[in-house]
Amino acid sequence: MKKFGLRYSGPYLAMVPGMLLLLLFSVYPTVFLFKISFQQYSPISAVNPFIGLDNYIDVFQDHNFWNALKVTFIFVVSTVILEFAIGLVLAVILNRLTSGERFYQSVVLLPIAMAPTVVGLMFRFMMNDQYGIFNYFIELLGMSRTAWLSEPHLALPALIVTDIWQWTPFMMIILLAGLKGLPDEPYEAAMIDGASSWQSFRYITIPQLSRIIYIALLLRTIDAIRIYDSIYMMTKGGPINVTSTMSWIVYDRGFKFLDFGYGAAICIVLLVIVVTLLTLVLKKFDLFEVEGRS
């Protein structure tokens, strides 16, 4: 009887360490974050009084929050669309290579092997208005030097370019894996019917790849919303808050001004936005529907 019980409880016992780690590093921090969002919480204060919804009211009345929401929206939409477009082109090209494919894949994937802080520091040097390589090429074209990270109208595009350089390979490798898994039969039938390459791509490749595309876009969108490393290394949220995203104002208020309650409220708002986005996308496209289910 003991052997029988151990046999069927074994898989559950094996899950215990993982569940404990999940509780420790995911569930508990989320519950704690939710709790302090209703407090005037500071790590250097002995008393952290309950203030109800005051932090949330302050968040929605703060123009910096709405500016950060706008900047985050512009950044996410711009990077995700461009990364998808460039990644799809690269995936199609690599999928059609007959030799040297692994070498070119390795070269293209190099950016995502680098830490975001390293990429941010590298682009900060490259975009320096005195000795940056960007300005070197601009001068070769006969134009004057540009302060990429100091000009309000150029700082956010500079961040977008940096993000595209690093994370386009992520989009590419997901789409390439999807292309590798597509069956050959529809293409052979289309070729017999006289379909062009563009028609095959438009009416066969894209529909069959749709779920992979939705998942890639969703994963990259969630990740882009959380951008912080590049901002810290390149612009520090400036100039005049044009690169201040949601993640940056959480750091700015929470860790620079030690207003953890306010920062926690912003985190909860951001969490609600991400969960809502995730729910709407999964519901609209039913990404995890079992194939063939009615």
TrEMBL record:
- The regions listed as transmembrane in this protein's record are 12-34, 73-94, 106-127, 156-180, 262-282
Transmembrane helix as UniProt keyword? yes
GO BP annotations, alphabetical order: transmembrane transport
GO-annotated cellular components = plasma membrane
Q: Which residues form a coiled coil?
A: none
Domain ABC transmembrane type-1 as annotated: residue spans = 69-281
Cell location: Cell membrane
Query: What InterPro entries has UniProt attached to this entry?
Result: MetI-like, MetI-like_sf
Q: Which CDD domains match?
A: TM_PBP2
Q: Member of which family?
A: Belongs to the binding-protein-dependent transport system permease family.
- From the Swiss-Prot or TrEMBL record, give the protein name: ABC transporter permease subunit
